[in-house]
Amino acid sequence: MMRVSGLIVGFFLTASAAQANDLPPGPIHDTVSTACSQCHSPEVVSSQRKTRAAWADTVNQMMANGATVSDTEFDKVVDYLAKNFPAK
Prior knowledge:
This protein has helices at about 1-20, 30-35, 40-45, 50-65, 70-85. The chain is mostly helical.
């Protein structure tokens, strides 16, 4: 039974790491990953394509809903999202 439990835990840890890797690397990656994954998977973020202004609105809305992004991190998070997931 312990072996099965270990396999299950390993699976979930691997799945969590894979989800975090859906977001491109960068200096603010961990902040974005942590803030966004409080409520949804990284795929929700990576599937979006928005202008910088639209990302700023989205981050403001998510902060109002409880996402932990400090005021000093706000512009960095928005820049990261706009660079990696721009409007098409």
